[in-house]
Amino acid sequence: MTCNQQASYKTIINGGLKPGKSVIVRGVVNPNPYRISFNLCHTYGVAFHYNPRFDENKVVCNTWDGKWGEEEFPAEMPFKEGQPFEIYIFCTDDSFNVSVNGQHVCSYKHRFSSLNEIDVFKVFGDLQIDHVDA
User: Fold this and answer.
1) What is the pTM of this model?
2) Mean pLDDT, the chain, as a whole number?
3) What total of structural domains would you count in the chain?
4) Is residue 3 part of a domain?
5) For the domain that residue 102 is a member of, what is the CATH number?
6) What is the secondary structure of the chain as a DSSP string?
7) Residue 2: inside a domain
8) What is the pLDDT averaged over residues 97-107?
9) Of residues 65, 33, 66, the one with CA closest to residue 51
10) Which of 24, 59, 68, 110 is deepest in the core (most CB within 10 A)?
11) Is residue 46 included in any domain, yes or no?
C-alpha cells in the first residue's frame, strides 16, 4: 500500500501539516467490513497509516518510506461494524494523537519529521464517508 493507490477519499492538505493541525473524518463503517486505512502521505510515502483490521480485530499503525516500518498496535478496536464514527487525528510536535468517537485511542510518534511535506490525506476501505475536515 502506498499513497499512489486509488482511494475511497483523497484531499490535499494545503500548506502541509504542522503542530496544532488536525484531520477529522465522520462516516459509517460498512456491514461485514474487512479493513479501513487512514493515511497521511507525503511525496515519497506514508507518514502515518492508521489501519483498523476487522478481519484480525486489531488496529495497526505504521509508516511507509519505501518499506513498512515496525508495526505498532494501539488499544482495542474502536470501530464497530455498521456504526457511525468520528476519527480525529491531531498533529503535535512529536506525535499524531488519535481519538475515535471522543475517546483517545493512540499516540504515534513521528517517524517522518518533515511535517510540512505531509500534504495528502487518503482513506481506503469498507466505509462510507459523510464529512472530512483536513
Assistant:
1) 0.94
2) 94
3) 1
4) no
5) 2.60.120.200
6) --TTS--SEEEE-TT---TT-EEEEEEEEPSS--BEEEEEEETTEEEEEEEEETTTTEEEEEEESSSB---B--SS----TT-EEEEEEEE-SSEEEEEETTEEEEEEE-SS--GGG--EEEEEESEEEEEEE-
7) no
8) 97
9) 33
10) 59
11) yes
Range of the domain at 22: 9-133
Query: Is residue 1 very low, low, confident or very high in pLDDT (cuts 50, 70, 90)?
Result: very low
For residues 3 and 6, what is the distance between their CA atoms, to the nearest angstrom? 8
| Domain membership flag for residue 38 | yes
From residue 31, give the alpha-carbon distance in Å to each of 34, 37, 112. Answer: 9, 16, 34
What's the pLDDT tens digit per position in 107-126? 999 999 999 999 999 999 99
> In Å, how far from its chain's centre is CA 117?
16
The model's pLDDT over 6-40, given as tens digits with 9 standing for 90+, comes to 668 999 999 999 999 999 999 999 999 999 999 99
